[in-house]
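Before drawing any conclusions, I looked closely at one protein, both as residues and as discrete backbone shape codes, quoted below without any editing:
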Amino acid sequence: MMKTLLLLATFTGIVMGYCGPRAERNFEVLLRPEPRVEIELGDTISLVCAAHGHNMMDPLVYWVKGIGPDLNEKGKRMGPTAVGKSTFYIEKAEKEDIDNYKCVIEDCCSGNKEEITVEILVPEDTCQDVYGVGHVIFGATWVFRNWTAAIADCESKGMELAMPKNEEENAQLQRDLQLSFETHPNAAKFAHENWCWIAASDEETEGTWLAAKDNEPLTYFNWDKKQPDNKDLPILKKQPHLLGSSNLAPTQNVAGIHRGTGKWDDSFLHYKRPYACLCPTD
């Protein structure tokens, strides 16, 4: 397969260019790749990133692969560096190319950077027999979302967030998650993320775990050792003024399942994790 970074500008052999007075120089992004690009395996990928310097030479432009599902990991720098414009081009995308990337635009006068993230993914086909996953009861979604957003996404598809009601269903969910992780191209970036959301919460009353679908008390549990422990959010110990923030859950009031063991853990509402929806039976 041909994988090429096309540099449609001056190469970095000429990095010592004009740098005007600091107060008067800046760069302008001219071409910004879309933040989310959905393709099929075998498709061509062509992403263009370009910027122009004002009162300075054009900035450096390069690509980084493998920045993690939260888009915050360092990743691996790809190919040579261009000046002004770089096109990331893959003739025929393979499974290994389905990843998160960023275009880095760097002012070589001051070292200031702008990073533009791009998620490349294939269609979820959540409950379909694709990529060798076979028949599943629970369809995994390999996207980082918080617990509330995961519930909303399943509902938008006419489904519900997975909530095993007995040992058999729990084993089925764990199996389906692990099988999807091993076969679905979108899952590779989650290699270091073992936990997936399930539709259980004790947000209303601490210690009383309810199913999100109908708010009925759970009768089956598969907690991991010493769980649930309802830990406080670590940052609140150092910055208690954040307690009233609507974006932060102070304690662990929702649950996740370990895709490798099937054990449960309580977690923070605002954390982001992959998840699975209960597939339609018809």
The CA atoms of residues 52 and 213 lie 51 Å apart. DSSP finds three helices and 17 strands in the chain. The helical segments are 147-156, 167-183, 234-238. Confidence is low (pLDDT under 50) at residues 7-15.
